[in-house]
């Protein structure tokens, strides 16, 4: 089985191609080009490394959020179109789940990614034997507010690991919190390989959808929606 995984949740967009459980290609260009321009080139490069065409892909995996609105929409739109064209299933994967998948640590994990505007996307996961299960909802808040919620929920700082592709960015703010005592793990911002691994596990459990039912997991409402609601 060939699985093509795509992550466009941040500026570090990437594409991974997996055959069964073996990573065949991982394309993560460092470019200032818009995702809408660079993504098809990355897909073609990954397929070319395996000598495949788009029709040979059996299932798609895609990071469906949370992340930057426009960036996410590019990846989701491309996957929707390709999956519908070739009548293939799609497995949506949370970006925060992919962050946990990338972590070497297990136990209680707190994935954190940049939500911009002074906020973060975060959640609490429990990872055992490589399988991550979310405990509670994904949130978008200031880091300090998010940590306060974890504290109120009884999460012990010494028993969890904070995981982020932007760990140096949070260090000064963590030092002034109770979670200064937590372990920290910095991971690569390239997440397509982690999306692929999670998609494989989810596909095996029957958690795929068709192109029509693929939805974004924005967590935060768009500016357009907020302005419309205010009227």
Question: What would you say this structure looks like, in words?
Answer:
There is one protein chain. The protein has 231 residues and is α/β, with parallel strands linked by helices. The chain has two domains: 2-94 and 190-230, ATPase, nucleotide binding domain (Nucleotidyltransferase, domain 5); 104-186, ATPase, nucleotide binding domain (Nucleotidyltransferase, domain 5, 2-Layer Sandwich), CATH 3.30.420.40. It has seven helices and twelve strands. Strands 6, 7, 8, 9, 10, 11 and 12 form a seven-stranded mixed beta sheet that branches. The chain has a five-stranded mixed beta sheet with strand order 3-2-1-4-5, with helices on both faces. Strand 2 (14-19) and strand 3 (22-27) form a beta hairpin. The chain is globular and about 50 Å long.
Task: Please describe the structure with a list of short key phrases separated by commas or semicolons.
single chain, about 230 residues, alpha/beta, Nucleotidyltransferase, domain 5, 2 domains, seven-stranded mixed β-sheet, five-stranded mixed β-sheet, 7 helices, globular, disordered C terminus
Tell me the radius of gyration.
18 Å
**CATH homologous group name of the largest domain:** ATPase, nucleotide binding domain
| CATH class wording of the largest domain | Alpha Beta
| Overall pLDDT metric | 93
Please tally the helical runs, counting DSSP H or I stretches of 4 or more residues.
7
Q: Tell me how many strands there are.
A: 12
CATH topology (fold) name of the largest domain: Nucleotidyltransferase, domain 5
What would the principal axes of the Cα set say about the shape?
Answer: globular
- Residue ranges: pLDDT <50 for 5 or more in a row? 222-231
What separation lies between the terminal Cα atoms? 49 Å
Query: Given the helix and strand composition, which structural class is it?
Result: alpha/beta
User: Quick one: biggest sheet?
Assistant: 7 strands, mixed
């Amino acid at each position: 089985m060939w699985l093509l995984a795509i992550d466009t949740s941040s500026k570090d967009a990437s594409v991974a191609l997996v055959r069964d459980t073996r990573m065949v290609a991982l394309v993560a260009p460092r470019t200032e080009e818009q995702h809408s321009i660079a993504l098809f080139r990355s897909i073609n490069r990954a397929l070319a490394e395996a000598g495949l065409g788009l029709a040979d892909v059996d299932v798609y995996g895609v990071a469906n959020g949370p992340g930057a609105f426009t960036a996410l929409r590019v990846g989701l739109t491309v996957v929707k179109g390709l999956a519908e064209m070739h009548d293939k299933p799609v497995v949506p994967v949370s970006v925060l789940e992919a962050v946990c998948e990338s972590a070497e640590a297990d136990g209680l994990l707190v994935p954190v990614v940049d939500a911009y505007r002074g906020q973060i996307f975060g959640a609490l996961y429990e990872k055992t034997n490589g399988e991550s299960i979310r405990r509670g909802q994904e949130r978008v808040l200031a880091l300090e507010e998010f940590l306060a919620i974890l504290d109120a929920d009884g999460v012990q700082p010494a028993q969890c690991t904070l995981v982020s592709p932007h760990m140096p960015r949070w260090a000064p703010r963590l030092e002034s919190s109770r979670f200064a005592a937590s372990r920290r793990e910095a991971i690569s911002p390239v997440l397509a390989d982690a999306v692929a691994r999670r998609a494989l596990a989810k596909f095996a459990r029957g958690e795929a959808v068709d192109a029509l039912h693929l939805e974004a997991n924005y967590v935060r409402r768009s500016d357009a929606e907020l302005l419309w609601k205010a009227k």
